[in-house]
Design a protein that fits this description.
This protein has 609 residues and is α/β, with parallel strands linked by helices. Helix content is 36%, strand content 23%. Strands 3-2-4-1-10-9-11-15 form an 8-stranded antiparallel beta sheet, with helices on one face. It has a 7-stranded antiparallel beta sheet with strand order 5-6-7-8-12-13-14. A 5-stranded parallel beta sheet has the order 17-16-18-19-20, with helices on both faces. A hairpin with a 1-residue loop joins strand 2 and strand 3.
Length: 609
Amino acid sequence: MCGIVGAIANRDVVPVLIEGLKRLEYRGYDSAGIAVVDGGVRRVRRTGRVAEMEAAALAEHFTATLGIGHTRWATHGGVTEGNAHPHISHGELALVHNGIIENHEEQRERLRALGYEFESQTDTEVIAHLIHYYRTQGDDLLVALQKAVRELDGAYAIAVIDKRDPERMVAARVGCPLLVGLGEGENFIASDVSAIVSSTRRVIFLEEGDTAELTRTAVRVFDAADNEVQREVHVSDVSLASLELGPYRHFMQKEIHEQPRAVADTIEAVIDNNGFTPELFGRDAATVLRDVEAVQILACGTSYYAGLTARYWIEAIAGVPCSVEVASEYRYRKVVANPKQLIVTISQSGETLDTMEALKYAKSLGHDKTLSICNVPESAIPRASKLVYYTRAGAEIGVASTKAFTTQLVALFVLTGTLAKLRGLLSAEQETGYLDALRQLPGSVQHALNLEPQIIVWSDRFAPKQHALFLGRGMHYPIALEGALKLKEISYIHAEAYPAGELKHGPLALVDSAMPVVVIAPNDSLLEKVKSNIQEVRARGGEMFVFADADSRFGESEGVHVIRTPRHVGVLSPIVHAIPVQLLAYHAALARGTDVDKPRNLAKSVTVE
């Protein structure tokens, strides 16, 4: 959500800012702007796409060696140019901000009493005026920032420039991601490394409560107590190629088709290790995992559905009680702590605020067995966890998650195998069987991708619909949930998912010829039960779209359409069946003409409540 980029250099930084904002478009936004110091402070803002703001900046001949930029996802105040960032105080100081300031109303009243006038409805403008106020009291830019943030409640990532101090930029973070990029004679600030990867790969991840001061030749970082500290320099492995569309129409399409490679890369360590071992999760994993009595999975959205799938594996294979909870609910309820419970957080970005806060809450209760499953190295949630398993999906740009989901499932299956082995519940023969299944998984995913032409035919029938129902049983019920989420996210067709056995307990009332029903029907022990549920739908005139396995005896008939995925792959079947529901959502959205990569009202990295 929202994106920040800033630069100070000996060259014109306006192209750097604009390119950075384009790289951040995937995060979700509704307006964009830049501000530069060029004698005075100049600003250009537009609602809509970055390209519109870029055209205005070029028309106004923006050039500067110091500047900041922002893509905004509206929280406080509507989608208007006046609410877009950057915000300026008294024509002297410009600021961009990600996050939410919870005490902004109190600060607004205080600043009004001091003579400040407000031009926007945002909480952000409060920060700009507060820093400006401390500047008027004689503080330099860094000290003014440090004083101001002590008075803020909430989450924020901030970058500030001032025409009275054209040789520096300052920044701060609490709760929201922010990093510093290190160049030669130039330095950068960004909320995401993708914004600056074309200029540098050397980055410093600011920690909770840090402030920073950037000049062309130096970067200084200060902790929450304003003590100067040294933070580790990391070399990012994000490639420019991963941020480009290549031959694909959309990033979502590209990322769906990258799943065989993403899955192969994620299981590589297990295959190379020739088995499930605690060391796959970190140096201390053997100690942390050995006496685990229960697993608590915390996640949001698609990651939550990955956790729901894993619950079936963890309980059936590892014999460990497993609960899965939406992170935003867990963090606000009284929890009965169990020191021997493993807390597993799942997040593609590693910056999901609700998940991060849920992890903090769990740790405050005394939970020290923590594991993060994440796709972004050195992000906040892995840094706060004792153990980590990185899904090697590569950069995921499309807002609707695809390859992150399937690689999360792979990681959770590896955790299942490891827990089962530690508990003596995994024989050598079973381990060999699971490893063989993992080796074959990328090929099975590719076979599922080969169903795309058949799914395109189905998508044309979905495009005019307003509602859809998804059904699944057992460990495939979460795949039905994920299929419904994908369809509504990007095509805006209202879709709901139910366990197929629940059909007669309510949802059957909705079924008619206008509501397509998608069924996940693998060739497992529940297949006959699913067939009975299908008959219930057909008896009410519903039209069925069934994803079955190649080796299941499941025939087409009037009103029952069948696409056969590869042969049943056992416990890993949910991963393979995730592919066709992703393709169905993608092509239905194409047929409806929606903005696939940037669905309305949604953001990629959700860093606010």
